[in-house]
Specification:
The protein is an alpha/beta fold. The protein has 19 helices and 12 strands. The protein has helices at residues 20-24, 61-72, 102-115, 138-145, 150-155, 162-171, 174-180, 183-190, 203-206, 208-226, 240-245, 259-277, 299-312, 343-348, 364-376, 392-400, 411-415, 419-424, 439-445; strands at residues 8-9, 32-34, 37-39, 43-45, 77-84, 121-127, 230-234, 282-288, 316-320, 353-354, 383-386, 406-408. Bound molecules: flavin mononucleotide (FMN) and iron/sulfur cluster.
Length: 482
């Protein structure tokens, strides 16, 4: 992962925890209303992929145990991990692209409601992503994957056949390759081939605006049938919908170019989803306060996006930042490029060794600007902000200053799923505090079951503890013994 050169070690924000009475009177623990959805507190667990579904994308007992563990800490809301809207194989990631996924998801909803004694609302983040190949072995790339074109043939006029061109390319040094291969071919070699929303010469990419509204609507309809309280449209990070919003989207079919055209598909998707689930299901989206890449969408555009989403009738907007493919580091051969390895990835999940700004609340000021822009335009759409928020005073300050309406905390809640409950009950001293060194994120990158370094070796021999396949890590945080 890319790291800021400054490498300044930041201290965790103050652990000045409230008494139960102070917590009860706090903004953080006060109720809120997100569209049709009441929240018991302004605490929110953003989507985190734990790699626990079946290869076919179905809910497993380990998926249920993961969400049950979060629900026992009684946050206001849990957003279930990015869940694929298509009925295509995508490894052990949850899917919602067919009715066969609905019963398992219904069990998941029931599990969260039951484990939180009805206090936690549960949303599902629904996602579309484009095809991406693993970084190839160069020998195989030149022997098989690369399509030989006249450009390659011209570079090796002495070659008598395409096979000889392939052989020459396989022997070429990096500088020669940089001249002979196109930028996309070089990318396919060094990162693995990756489709973009601008590849409109490919029919399945050209037709995205035709097919995505119905795919998202059908997925949201299944979420409603499964009993989810809400749906979060994934318009963030490196995936299809974020790529439509991005300044890098130059499509010329009315769905790219200026900001209004880039907003068109995200708004059409939302309209289709709303038409399918009605007003009783909470629908909002997660998008980026800043793409944090060269030439990408910035905070000014984020304000425009937020106003457009609010005007369309979204019930909330949830802000993340960065997490793009454009500046990701090359993966190892055999691995897929991971959009959290470059500077924009750092913005998304910053670690404790950081620049002057530090990892804590890095997205708060941009979030506050988005919220102010909404207010100026006359919208009270709730804003969820996430990124390095891990203390009561930090969260309470954000709410008191009107910088956000709801506080998201991903890694701190992974480190201690009871942390919100510990705050509420005056037991803040017992909170297991996230170290922000991204052991969990490294597991995600390797597509391994995600756990936290602070608890995954604890009491491995206790009865009924689900363990990773190698038996060396527990899959859920140990229970809180008061
Ligand atoms: C293991 C892991 C998986 C994640 N998966 C998702 C995801 O599915 N969807 C998403 O929008 N963000 C995902 N994120 C990003 C988090 O939701 C959050 O934005 C990020 O970790 C920064 O917040 P934090 O500082 O509170 O951890 C993931 C983060 C981690 C650590
Ligand atoms: S593994 Fe590290 S960064 Fe991840 S939740 Fe645990 S302490 Fe935090």
């Amino acid at each position: 992962m890319w790291r800021p050169p400054q490498r300044i070690k930041h201290e965790l924000p103050s652990g000045d925890w409230p008494t139960a009475e102070q917590a009860a009177a706090s903004r953080l623990m006060s109720p809120a209303t997100i569209g049709p959805m009441p929240l018991s507190s302004r605490t929110w667990v953003p989507a985190m992929v734990p790699w626990r579904a079946t290869e076919g994308g179905l809910v497993t007992p380990d998926v249920l145990a993961w969400y049950e563990r979060f629900a026992r800490g009684k946050p206001g809301a849990i957003v279930v991990e990015a869940t694929g809207i298509r009925d295509v194989p995508s490894g052990p990631l949850l899917r919602i692209g067919h009715d066969r996924f609905t019963p398992g998801l219904r069990q998941l909803v029931d599990t969260v409601h039951r484990a939180s004694q009805g206090e936690t609302r549960v949303l599902i983040q629904i996602i579309d992503f484009l095809r991406i190949r693993r970084r190839p072995d160069p020998a195989k790339f030149f022997a098989r994957f690369l399509t030989i074109t006249d450009r390659h043939r011209a570079a090796y006029p002495e070659a008598h056949s395409d096979d000889e061109v392939r052989a020459q390319l396989a022997l070429a040094d990096p500088q020669a390759l940089a001249e002979v291969l196109t930028a996309r071919e070089l990318e396919a070699l060094q990162f693995g081939a990756r489709e973009r929303v601008t590849d409109t010469e490919l029919p399945h990419i050209a037709e995205l605006p035709k097919v995505l509204p119905e795919l998202f609507a059908a997925a949201a309809g299944r979420a409603a049938t499964a009993g989810f309280d809400g749906v979060e449209l994934h318009y963030a990070h490196a995936y299809t919908m974020a790529s439509f919003l991005s300044r890098h989207n130059t499509r010329s079919d009315g769905y790219g170019g200026d900001v209004q055209r880039r907003l068109r598909l995200p708004l059409e998707v939302f309209a289709a989803v709303r038409a399918r689930v009605g007003d009783d299901v909470c629908v909002g989206c997660r998008f980026l306060a800043d793409e944090a890449i060269a030439g990408g969408s910035d905070l000014d555009e984020a304000k425009t996006f937020a106003r457009a989403f609010a005007a369309a009738g979204m019930d909330f907007v949830s802000l993340s930042r960065g997490g793009k493919f454009e500046d990701a580091l090359p993966p190892k051969v055999g691995w897929a490029v991971y959009p959290y390895t470059g500077p924009s990835g750092y913005e998304c999940m910053p670690i404790v060794r950081s620049d002057e700004a530090g990892p804590f609340g890095r997205n708060v000021a941009p979030g506050a600007s988005v919220r102010a822009a909404l207010a100026e335009a006359g919208f009270a759409t709730p804003v969820v902000v996430t990124g390095g928020i891990c203390s009561f005073s930090q969260a309470e300050g954000i709410l008191a200053r009107g910088e956000a309406d709801v506080i998201g905390a991903a890694r701190q809640t992974l480190a201690d799923p009871d942390w919100f409950l510990k705050i509420a009950t005056g037991c803040g001293e017992a909170i297991r505090r996230c170290k922000y060194t991204n052991y969990c994120e490294a597991l995600d990158q390797k597509h391994k079951v995600v756990t936290c370094q602070l608890w995954d070796r604890e009491a491995l021999d206790a009865p009924d503890v689900p363990l990773s396949a190698d038996g060396r890590r527990r899959l859920v945080a140990p229970p809180w013994r008061r």
